[in-house]
Amino acid sequence: MQHFLASEYSPVLPEQAGFHIIPVPLEQSVSYGAGTAGGPAALLEASQQLEAWECGHAPGETGFYTAPPVDCGGPVEKVLDRIEAATARATSCAALPVLLGGEHTVTLGALRALAKEAQRSREPFGIVQFDAHADLRSSYEGSPYSHACVMHRAVADLGLPLVQFAVRDFCREEAEVRKAHNVTHYDAYFMARVGLPEQPLPEDFPRRIYITFDVDAFDASLMPATGTPSPGGISWREAHFILERCVAGRRVIGLDVVELAPIQGLHHCNFTAAKLTHLLMGLAHAANTGPDGA
């Protein structure tokens, strides 16, 4: 198994790491293009080509521990339990969990672990989602645990506040769920015409945030290696800009990069996903160690 950015940083023990990178090669409910099971391994391999720094950030200096891949065999409910346990182990080591998907359903396991911690500590958190799709269906193709339902589970079952960026494909049911659960959204169509406010997160949004980034949030020209590549998405620079605004003055408690479905011979997509993961870790570390994040 490859370790994240081992070309620049030697892997450390779990208890010594600032970040636990958790590969989750889940592929059970993909509904169009397949291949997400290969996403984590491809991302880890591509990470060997990264530089030690990303936009002035060097999160690897806090220590990277790459956990063994989560066993994704058997019923999805059991897989979610394993993801939850891996996430809880990361937080027990005072490390920030970084999940590598796999289909978007993997996010639910991490959110369950963090929601239990938040309930114990009475410190709420919210979700910042980048995605071409709203993922707010109550059920899809017979399963409430489809990748198309993960944010419904988050807002309806876990009661977590949510802000969405770059969505451009959703249905009437999902629009109604947005209204019912007060989901803030900056859809791709809106951002292309109006832009983004200086403070994209609501004033009453929790200070602690979890970032989930489905790579299909990017325009299909940048990221064709995903199950449902969609035109009209955001660029790399736009994603970076939005992320910087979202983490400012906040504390990041976890993150994931999901839905990479590698295409043989098209390695730029794997590298983009690895670079995104590194950037997210850098921004999280800077936010968490700054004057407003400690």
UniProtKB/TrEMBL annotation:
Annotated Gene3D superfamilies: Ureohydrolase domain (3.40.800.10)
Source organism superkingdom: Bacteria
Record keywords: Hydrolase, Metal-binding
Alphabetical list of Pfam families matching this protein: Arginase
Keyword Metal-binding: yes
InterPro entries given in the database record: Agmatinase-rel, Ureohydrolase, Ureohydrolase_dom_sf, Ureohydrolase_Mn_BS
Keyword field contains Hydrolase: yes
Similarity comment: family membership: Belongs to the arginase family. Agmatinase subfamily.
Name of this chain's protein: Agmatinase
